TrEMBL record:
Keywords: DNA-binding. This is TetR/AcrR family transcriptional regulator. It comes from the Bacteria. PROSITE patterns: HTH_TETR_1 (PS01081), HTH_TETR_2 (PS50977). The keyword Endoplasmic reticulum does not apply. SUPFAM superfamilies: Homeodomain-like, Tetracyclin repressor-like, C-terminal domain. Pfam families: TetR_N. Residues 36-55 bind DNA. InterPro entries: DNA-bd_HTH_TetR-type_CS, Homeodomain-like_sf, HTH-type_TetR-like_transc_reg, HTH_TetR, Tet_transcr_reg_TetR-rel_C_sf. Residues 13-73 form the HTH tetR-type domain.
């Protein structure tokens, strides 16, 4: 009985994953408003009943996608904050962004990785969808709090000035990652190593002879 229950849960989790991934690809490809639930059903090759068992409609799908991604990012930074000292910013941002991207390598349309497009659309949608905006703000708040713990770890270890508010540093580092995503969405994808190398260069300004 226990084995059957476990297999059934695994099946349900896999089906939910299938629906979320298919919906995310539809949204990235065509936009939220141009995508219908029929488009999602066609993409995942499931019946309406199978999909609606998990999600009541597009808004719930979007909320689930946003919640999942922000949780992944938060957990990555919280794990780093538990290290003493935390990994340096270039390593940490690269690790977390790389993990999120690697989990969505199947989001390809016409040979292009379209996940960054989805992120930009989520940001735009929060400007008009109050419910999604609330979810996004809560998630962003938790990510910022996790980053602040990382910054405090840097300061406690003497790796960073302690006279700069941790929140200011956290917001700036988040903005750096967001800006890189925006560039990928508009100008084409680039490896995460580009962002890491840029951060390394900025971090070396106080020590031009530093080598990593």
């Amino acid at each position: 009985m226990l084995s059957m229950a476990r297999v059934t849960q695994e099946h349900l989790d896999a089906r939910r994953r299938q629906i979320l991934d298919g919906a995310a690809l539809c949204f990235a490809r065509n936009g939220f408003h141009a995508t219908s639930m029929q488009d999602v059903l066609k993409e995942v090759d499931l019946s309406a009943g199978a999909v609606y068992r998990y999600f009541s409609g597009k808004n719930e799908l979007i909320k689930a996608i946003v919640t999942e991604v922000l949780a992944e990012v938060r957990e990555g930074f919280e794990a780093a904050a538990r290290q003493s000292p935390p990994p340096p910013p270039d390593e940490l941002v690269g690790r977390v962004m790389g993990s999120v991207i690697e989990g969505r390598v199947g989001m390809i349309h016409n040979g292009e990785f379209v996940y960054p497009r989805l992120i930009i659309q989520v940001w735009a949608e929060t400007m008009r969808n109050e419910e999604l905006s609330a979810v996004f703000h809560d998630g962003f708040g938790s990510v910022r709090a996790a980053w602040m713990k990382v910054v405090q770890g840097y300061q406690d270890a003497g790796m960073m000035r302690d006279d700069v508010p941790a929140e200011s540093v956290a917001r700036t580092m988040i903005a750096t990652a967001q800006g890189f995503v925006a560039q990928m969405a508009v100008f084409g994808t680039a490896p995460v190593e580009v962002l890491q190398e840029g951060l390394q260069g900025l971090m070396s300004m106080g020590n031009p002879d530093a080598r990593t």
